[in-house]
Structure formats: C-alpha cells, structure tokens
Amino acid sequence: MTPQRPGPGTAPGPESSRAARQRARQAGRAVGSGAKVAGRGVAGAARATGRVGRYTLRQARRAADAEGAGASGLSRLIELHSLNAAGDAAVAISLAGTLFFQVPTGEARGQVALFLGLTMLPFAIVAPLIGPFLDRFAHGRRWAIGATMALRGLFCLALASAVVDESRWLFPSALGCLVASKAYGVTRAAAVPRLVPHDLTLVKANARISLAGVVGAAVSAPLAGLAAFAGPEWALRYAFVIFSLATIWAIRLPERVDSSAGEGTLLMLPGGSEPTPGRRGRPRMRIPGTVSFALRANCGPRWLSGFLTMFMAFLLRENPIGDWRPEVLLGLVIGAAGLGSTLGIALASILKRVNPALTVVLTLFADAAMALLAALFYGLVPLVLLGLTAGLSQSLAKLSLDSTIQRDVHERVQTSAFARSDTTLQSAWVIGGFVGIAMPLMPRTGLGVACAVLVAWLVFVLATRPGAAAPARPGGTG
Predict the structure, then answer these.
(1) Residue 435 phi, psi (nearest 5)
(2) DSSP states along 218-252
(3) Is the separation of the CB atoms in 214 and 66 below 8 Å?
(4) What is the CATH number of the domain that holds 316?
(5) Based on the domain organization, do 249 and 266 belong to the same domain?
(6) Taking burial as the number of CB atoms within 10 A of a residue's CB, which of 31, 87, 91, 117 is the most buried?
(7) Within a domain: residue 15?
(8) Are 293 and 369 within one domain?
(9) CA Rg, the chain, in Å?
(10) Distance (Å, whole) CA 365 – CA 295
C-alpha cells in the first residue's frame, strides 16, 4: 500500500514539520549573520571615523601648539578663532537663505542697504574706541572677547525666533550679530601681540590664526547646511551652541591677555615712529608713513570683497548664468574667494622676504586687472577667477600690513595700531557692500565700475606713497 500525501486541508506530517523548522532556523541564522555583518560594518565605520577625527584633532592641536604657541597661550586663541569662524559660517548660511533667496529682489536690496547703512555708524564711532578703552583698563580683555561671543549667541537665539515668526526683530538681531562679530575682530587683534612666542613672528601668528578660521568655517559649513535643511532657525541654534563654547574658551585665555604694561595710544597720522609722552604719562605716537601707505592699499581689496559679496548675491539671483541655480553660482564664487584666502595664507611664508609695500600694490593691481577681465568676458570661469584673486589679494595684503605694523610701529602702541587698522578695513568692506547693493544688476556695468574704482584707488595710493621708508622701531625685527 502506498502512503497518501496530505491534502490541502490535512496537517503536515512530522517530516514536513521538521523540514519547515530547519528552514526557519537556517533563515534565522542567515538574518542573524547578516545583521552581525552589518553591525560589524557600522561599528568598523564608526571606529574608523573616530580614529580619523581623533587623528585630525591631534594634528590640529599639534599645529596650534607648534613653535612655542602652546606655551605662550597663542594656541588657545587659535582654537577660539576657529570656533568664531564656525559660528559665523552658520549665521551666514542661515541669513543667506532668509535675506537673499526668500525675499523679493527689490525688497531684499532695500532692506540689506538699510542694514549696511546702520552698520556704518557703529563702525565709524564705536569701534575706534574699543582699542583705547581696553588699553585704559588693564583687566577685561578676556571678558570683552567672551562678551562678544555671548552676545552673538543671544542674538542667534533671537534670530531663530524672528525667522520662524517673521518678526520685525529679524534685522535688529542680525545687526547685533554683525556688530558683535566686528567687535570681536578688534578685541582679538588687540590680544594677538601679547600671546606671540619669541620664536614666532607676528605675521606668521596672524597667518596661523587666519588659517584656523578657514578650517573652522570649512568644517562648520556642511553641518550648518544640514541643520538649515530642517529650517534656517536650526542653523542659528547650532550657531548658539558654537558661540556658547567660544564664550567659555575666551574666558580661559591666558591672563597675559589682560596685561597692558608699557602700552600707549596711537594717533593715526603720518609721522615718526618714536613714542612721545601723553596724558597721565602714557606714550602717544604718530603712525609711520609706511603703515599709512599699507593701510590705504589694503582698503582696495577689502572694498572689493564687500562689493562682490553684495553685488553677486543679487546679480546671480536675478541674472543666473546658464542653467546654474543662483545658490550654486554664489557658492562657487564665495568658495573660490575662500580658496584664494587660504592660498594667500600658505604663500605668506614664501613672500615674507618680499617688500610688503610692493606686495600690497601688486594685490591691488591684480584685483583691478581681474575685475576688468570679468567685465569683458563675463561668465562662470571669469567670476570664479575673480573670486579667487579677490581672496588671495585680500589675504596677502592683510598679512603685509601686519608685518609692516610689526616692523615700523613701536611695541608699546602696536595694540592700538591693530585695532584702528582693523576698524578701517571693516569700514572699507561695508562701503564696498553698500556700493554693490546700489549698483544696477547689469554684470558688465557693475564689474566695470568696480574696476574703475580700483584703478582710481591704485593711482591715489601710489601718489601718496612715502618717499622713504620710516626707520625701524628700536629693538624691532626687520
């Protein structure tokens, strides 16, 4: 008799049940093995990412501590500046989407023009007082730097709420962020000379700080961009966290940042390099002609930077090139400027033996020539080259100015010199931005005007060049 197979409604036999259980166990083992493999892959990737992150952090700290910067406390200021740049990048990304790409062009131009106009008053009146104020009060520079960070954190929280609610506090809060950012630049410039180790020149110290800012912004920008996908308010909340950490970092700066022994105030007028007695026995000094010349030349690249930032933001939105999106085009131009700035910092060690006066003139000439080229052959490649040249010129010109102040300005008044020069350059940027907003959105016309302004400024700078270099300061390095 042959056994009958179970029908559709008949329960399976013992052999069928065992086979089904065996197949289920095999499937379970396969799934478990796959999960283990995936888990090991994720864990391995996490360990690799952690090792890369730790290695990068160690290398960054090693670079910051090199040449005596760790012992002098300069490394802490370098780390602080990287946090500052990271927070600024997050604020810029959030406001770019809020001010430039979500508001009609005509309305945005009027609002941003008012915004820049309001910033000129604090720069022209308040900023020049920061350096003398800090020189007068010996203890407080660390707290002043920390206050600029804390204020920006609070303004970021206010901005986050204003962006969500479309509140009228949007522009006042953005204005507060900008003013606090510029105040940080002045207070940081006042702190740098106190933390430079003996084996490191001031120009190299400033180059290292600037490079840390570029790295901080480059690392922070993608994170802020991811946060901005959830809404611009989340990029601002991310910036609040960064500025909160920076506030703690500022307070932990070395105590010598608060020292003002042997310093004096500075008169921004052409003259000799020897200090003379001032009120309450504090030395006063007239700025050397070489420093005045370098500062005037620096105003050209800084003006172009402000002009391009505002002009291109509206021009590329209203007149995009080809099928490129305005945000992408603006990112390419700004990215090229950032790359140029980084290249300028890297080239600083190579160009350190070149006459700084020659360097600032060449950078101004290069900006004018590239603006003319972009006006004649308007397109994506000329614009990217213009951004690259503008960033490179601004970086090299600023480092040349720093070395000129180090060489020709007495140690007792270098703090005031850096504070005043930084204020002048910030004002030049604001004026350039205001001109960029006021220009009609015609590419060749706007870039042609920029070229004409730079050429006229170059002629003025060369006409006012001092006939002979000022004598080196006593005890200084050439």
Answers:
(1) -65, -40
(2) HHHHHHHHHHHHT-HHHHHHHHHHHHHHHHHHHHT
(3) no
(4) 1.20.1250.20
(5) no
(6) 87
(7) no
(8) yes
(9) 29
(10) 15
Residues 366 and 448 in one domain: yes
Q: Which candidate, 370, 360, 362, places its Cα nearest to that of 390?
A: 370
The CA distances from residue 72 to 40, 77, 145, 155, 440, in Å, are: 44, 10, 18, 32, 50
Identify whether 19 is part of a domain: no
Instruction: Using the predicted structure, report yes or no on whether residue 473 has a pLDDT greater than 50.
Output: no
Domain that holds residue 94: 69-261
Give start and end residues of each alpha helix (H) in 166-288: 170-195, 202-229, 232-251
- What's the confidence (pLDDT) of residue 297? 94
Q: How far apart are CA 165 and CA 177, in angstroms?
A: 19
Q: What pLDDT score does 346 carry?
A: 79
Beta bridge partners, 283, equal: 277
Amino acid at 94: S
Residue-wise pLDDT tens digits, 310-369: 888 888 877 778 778 877 888 888 889 888 988 888 787 665 566 788 889 999 999 999
**Residue 288 DSSP label:** E
3-state SS assignment for residue 379: coil
- DSSP tally for the chain: helices H, then strands E: 15, 4
- Residues sharing a CB contact under 8 Å with residue 415, sequence separation 6 or more, in sequence order: 131, 134, 135, 189, 190, 193, 194, 260, 263
pTM for the full predicted model: 0.69
Are residue 136 and residue 165 in the same domain, yes or no? yes
Neighbours of 62 (CB within 10 A): 11
CA dihedral 290, 119, 121, 209 (to 10 degrees): -30
| Domain co-membership, 89 together with 177 | yes
Tell me the C-alpha distance between 279 and 292, whole Å: 24
Tokens of 192: 């740098």
Domains in the chain: how many in total?
2
Give a yes or no: residue 49 inside a domain: no
Q: Tens of pLDDT along 232-270?
A: 889 899 999 999 999 999 998 988 887 655 455 555 444
Q: Would you mind telling me the total number of residues written for the chain in this entry? A: 478
Clarify whether residues 299 and 328 are in a common domain: yes
Instruction: Map tokens 């040449």 to a residue.
Output: 67
pLDDT tens-digit map of 61-115: 565 555 556 677 888 999 999 999 999 999 888 877 665 545 555 556 666 666 6
Residue 317 domain-assigned (yes or no):
yes
